[in-house]
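Private note to self, pasted from the team thread so I don't lose it. Backbone tokens:
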């Protein structure tokens, strides 16, 4: 894997040469045969950021918030350098694929672990984790005291590993999601802009009704409806035409080969193929992969000194670089941004950050469970790894459950769900000087409200169907996956740690522009809201600060 996808500071001409980021053509890449995919071939890969460099805008992280900021700043004529601790994920491995499969994880699967840590870690009561070699892999299972927080690592952030479920919250719930933001501007301008930029679409209902790969979701729909729950199709950034071709046997299988958690080699429109492709095409955006920001502190002239460790694929620091930036955008994700800000405030690099930094963190109420169906109600051996269906009991019970796949390749007679719930608990990050680490005070018991809310759906369905919970998916006789979240949110909350547009209190030129701004819950899957909020904030920042 190359460690950089950059086009070089100031080398605007390089990527202007006709790089058209039409995702339709990009997704048509069949077997890669050891070559880089089209989107990666279109730009040169010169050296990463140099020690002593001076940059106009430095963006920490290449997930949703960072990608929106980079694109819009570049379009406004600002040169942008993005710093990403994970890999570029633009070069196939020895098997000809960039990403490894969920069913056969190798060194590419996890961030600096010697054993996998699968979210669903047992099957039929047996542990399924396996040894791997330590590598800067794609999925970080970051462990805090009471919770494991899963995050994507690499150019594209969470878009590399997520299910692509692209959900706009119901308008009536928005007031609780972002209380200080005007819903009119979000629903009229920024949600539509985000959905268009991300390439969001919905499964063809007729195809859904007939294809083998969504039998599990049809079973989910039947059970939901028989218990009187509203069933909804959930939009996704997967290329639905490509999935039809997979099912027809005319395209290399990706969603239908179980690819999801450790990357998707074909049909998913990750940020690499959408916002980041457009950002690179401006010629103003440079990305240094395998570079981790460790410090940001004021420099002379209102600028900032940024310290960056360059990493090798073993996670070792091979160089430490100090650069100067006019403006710095924290887009390292809820956890990454919170950890940096809390450390920098406590250790004296940014002492004037206010007391809200590190607070207001939530897990989006994530909780998982499975149900055991009757033998006459199979969910299908072939399951698309891309979920497309949900059960909406938010208003009545505080839970929105996505009907999730169990793409094991065998018939399991199981229905599996990831619920997003209205869990009120919020945690706080703090600096521990003894360990030199940032800690999070979340407790596993704080998931109980989530379990109770999810039970408003599944107790009723079990009772109606005469079925039971699976007890073999998260341990030995353990029903609830209450040890994790996929959706970390908060830690630098909008209007509290920052002003109402993400400007950090006390430091002109420092901004937060990622999931850290959102106070703990979005009522649905979060990345559309993170993207829309970033679109709103960067528009204001460009108009007034630059
Ligand atoms: P994020 O995408 O996490 O990007 C932050 C980036 O910053 C990462 O690439 C980091 O490696 C990088 N970084 C961190 N610290 C540093 C540092 N010090 N220096 C340099 N780089 C750094 O942030 N959401 C949905 O809406 N729908 C889904 O279907 C869905 N499924 C998910 C499935 C899984 C398994 C996971 C893990 C998440 C899922 N999510 C889903 C959540 C979604 O991916 C997440 O909310 C967003 O990615 C967060 O976007 P941010 O821009 O905040």
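Design output:
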């Amino acid at each position: 894997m190359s460690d950089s996808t950059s086009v070089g500071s100031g080398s605007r001409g390089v990527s202007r040469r006709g790089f058209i980021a039409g995702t339709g053509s990009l997704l048509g890449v069949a077997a890669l045969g050891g070559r880089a995919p089209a989107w990666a071939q279109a730009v040169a890969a010169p050296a990463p950021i140099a020690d002593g460099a001076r940059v106009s805008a430095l963006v920490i992280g290449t997930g949703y918030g960072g990608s929106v900021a980079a694109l819009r700043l570049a379009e406004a004529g600002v040169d942008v350098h993005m710093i990403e601790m994970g890999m570029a994920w633009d070069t196939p491995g020895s098997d000809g694929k960039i990403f490894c499969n969920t069913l056969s994880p190798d060194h590419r699967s996890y961030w600096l672990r010697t054993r996998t840590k699968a979210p669903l870690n047992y099957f039929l009561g047996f542990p399924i984790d396996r040894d791997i070699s330590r590598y800067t892999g794609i999925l970080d299972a970051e462990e805090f005291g009471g919770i494991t927080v899963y995050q994507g690592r690499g150019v594209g952030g969470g878009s590399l590993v997520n299910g692509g479920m692209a959900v706009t919250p119901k308008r009536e719930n928005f007031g609780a999601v972002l209380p200080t933001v005007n819903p009119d501007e979000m629903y009229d301008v920024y949600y539509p802009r985000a959905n268009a930029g991300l390439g969001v679409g919905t499964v063809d209902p007729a195809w859904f009704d007939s294809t083998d790969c969504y039998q599990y979701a049809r079973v989910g729909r039947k059970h939901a409806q028989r218990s009187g729950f509203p069933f909804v199709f959930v939009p996704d950034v997967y290329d639905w035409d490509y999935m039809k071709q997979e099912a027809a046997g005319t395209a290399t299988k990706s969603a239908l080969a179980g690819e999801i958690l450790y990357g998707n080699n074909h049909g998913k429109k990750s940020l690499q193929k959408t916002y980041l492709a457009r950002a690179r095409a401006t010629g103003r955006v440079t990305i240094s992969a395998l570079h981790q920001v460790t410090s940001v502190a004021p420099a002379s002239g209102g600028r900032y000194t940024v310290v960056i460790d360059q990493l090798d694929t073993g996670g070792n620091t091979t160089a430490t670089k100090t650069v100067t930036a006019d403006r710095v955008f924290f887009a390292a994700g809820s956890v990454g941004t919170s950890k940096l800000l809390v450390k920098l405030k406590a250790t004296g690099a940014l002492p004037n950050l206010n007391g809200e930094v590190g607070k207001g963190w939530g897990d989006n109420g994530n909780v998982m469970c499975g149900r055991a169906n009757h033998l006459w109600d199979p969910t299908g051996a072939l399951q698309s790894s891309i979920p497309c269906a949900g059960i909406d009991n938010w208003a009545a019970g505080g839970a929105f459950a996505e009907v999730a796949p169990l793409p094991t390749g065998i018939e399991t007679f199981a229905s599996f769900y990831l619920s997003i719930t209205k869990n009120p608990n919020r945690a706080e990050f703090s600096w521990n000087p003894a360990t030199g680490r940032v800690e999070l005070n979340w407790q596993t018991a704080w998931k109980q409200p989530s379990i109770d809310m999810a039970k408003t759906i599944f107790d009723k369905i079990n009772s109606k169907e005469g079925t039971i919970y699976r007890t073999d998916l998260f341990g030995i006789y353990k029903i609830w996956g209450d040890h994790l979240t996929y959706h970390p949110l908060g830690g630098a909350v909008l209007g509290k740690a920052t002003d109402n547009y993400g400007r950090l209190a006390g430091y002109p030129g420092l901004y937060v522009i990622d999931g850290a701004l959102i106070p703990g819950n979005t009522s649905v899957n979060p990345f559309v809201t993170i993207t829309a909020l970033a679109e709103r904030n960067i528009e204001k920042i460009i108009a007034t600060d630059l």
